[in-house]
Automatic annotation (TrEMBL):
Species this protein is from: Saccharomonospora viridis (strain ATCC 15386 / DSM 43017 / JCM 3036 / CCUG 5913 / NBRC 12207 / NCIMB 9602 / P101)
Domain of life: Bacteria
Keyword Membrane: yes
GO MF annotation: an example: protein histidine kinase activity
UniProt-recorded name of the protein: histidine kinase
Biased composition (Polar residues): 348-359
Length: 412
């Protein structure tokens, strides 16, 4: 304005026009600068929002979504449970991630289902073969009894491997007993499923029994612990099994004199059998497969398994069976005997000296008899036969299912 007043009249109009243009340009520049500042602020806010949602996605949403997918939840269910995302990029990342995880879980479930079906067929074949072998053990004479019992033992070990696969794949495992099984039969059944059963020494005065629905799984867990103890100790060393009955349940200690465990290995073993840690198939190896099976069975029945250093230099595995799985044997339970002959013949193996084999000190069960809970004694008839060398005594010892003071039963 001052410039216009000081300018001569003939030049005022151009000066006014130039001033107006300058003011307009300054206003436009100011407006553009303000708009750019606002846009920059909006972009910065959006970037910060995306960063916040990406952080939430990585730290909170994705772990929850992965866990729910592994538990079997559908995409629609998970989408309704997780917090909503306002930005499109994190949402697309989440959807892509969930689809990939779902496809991976479907493939894993299909593989597990195939393994479970294969394990079921192996279990059925093992059970059928054991039934046929035990029928043959009854029908054939002593000339082939040792070979039949050897095949029986190998088949029992193959059945344990099939049961282990079934446990790891979540399939049905083993036989369901309808009656309580006495602790002595549980221990002997576990011994019969390992190769080095002759090295196992039992120290038990427990008269309790295990409920039928859990007996097979506890027998399997004990077999895995005994098998580990025999594998990781010298062939010349015995494995001692101690049983103690408490008010809170039954405690079984499997003690070896092996090479022991380093602290970090002991910690991994504790995690493998923990009831709180889920099964991680990726972390399994050939040497820890048995412990993973024990861990699955422990989580199923709330068993507690602990490892500690043994006074004999090796490792002691302590298995605690809760009181809810412990009961007393029923005195009215009768032994199940599948005899077809009118009279059972006494075998010379009942008088075999104990010094011939460490397993010969164990009680013996007649062929064809299944696990029972403390049967009462029954009378039998004695038929004299020609004595001969017993080819199957050492293999028949681990199949004993009656108490030491109970004579074998016969059927008319």
């Amino acid at each position: 304005m001052w410039v216009c007043l000081e300018t001569v009249a003939s030049q005022r109009i151009p000066v006014i026009v130039a001033g107006g243009v300058t003011v307009a340009l300054l206003g436009a520049a100011t407006f553009v600068a303000v708009m750019h500042t606002l846009q920059l602020w909006q972009v910065q806010r959006r970037v910060e929002s995306v960063e916040d949602e990406l952080t939430q996605l990585a730290d909170e949403i994705l772990p929850v979504a992965a866990r729910r997918l592994r538990e079997g939840a559908s995409l629609a269910t998970i989408s309704a449970e997780i917090p909503s995302l306002s930005n499109d990029v994190p949402f697309r990342i989440l959807r892509l991630f969930m689809k990939e995880i779902e496809a991976s879980e479907r493939q894993r479930e299909a593989a597990m289902s195939a393994c479970a079906n294969a394990a079921g067929r192996m279990q059925a074949m093992a059970v059928g073969m054991l039934a046929d072998l035990r029928e043959m053990e009854y029908r054939h004479n002593e000339d082939v009894l040792g070979d039949l019992l050897r095949l029986d033992h190998y088949t029992a070990q193959a059945g344990r491997i099939a049961d282990s696969i079934a446990v790891l794949t979540g399939a049905r495992t083993g036989r369901r007993w309808t009656k309580p099984i006495v602790m002595e039969s549980i221990l002997r059944g576990a011994m019969s499923r390992i190769s080095a059963y002759r090295r196992v020494r039992l120290h038990s005065t427990c008269t309790a029994a295990i409920v039928g629905y859990a007996a097979e799984d506890i027998m399997h867990a004990l077999a895995e612990l005994m098998d580990n103890a025999t594998k990781f100790s010298k062939p010349s060393e015995d494995v001692h099994v101690h049983v103690e009955q408490l008010s809170s349940g039954v405690v079984i200690i499997v003690e070896d004199a092996g090479i022991g465990m380093k602290p970090q290995v002991l910690e991994r073993a504790e995690r493998a059998v923990s009831t709180t840690e889920p099964l991680d198939l990726v972390a399994l190896s050939g040497t820890r497969l048995g412990l993973a099976v024990v861990g699955c069975l422990a989580r199923k029945h709330q068993l507690r398994v602990r490892f500690r250093r043994s006074p004999r230099g090796g490792v002691s595995a302590v298995l605690r069976i809760p009181a809810v799985l412990v009961t007393q044997p029923r005195a009215e339970d009768e032994p199940t005997v599948r005899n077809r002959r009118p009279v059972e013949t006494d075998s010379p193996r009942s008088t075999q000296p104990a010094s011939q084999s460490s397993a010969a000190r164990l009680p013996k069960r007649r062929r064809g008899q299944t696990l029972v809970s403390s049967p009462p004694p029954r009378t039998r008839h004695r038929v004299e036969t020609k004595p001969r060398a017993d080819a199957g005594a050492r293999f028949n010892a681990f199949r004993a299912a009656v108490r030491p003071d109970t004579p074998p039963t016969t059927a008319d």
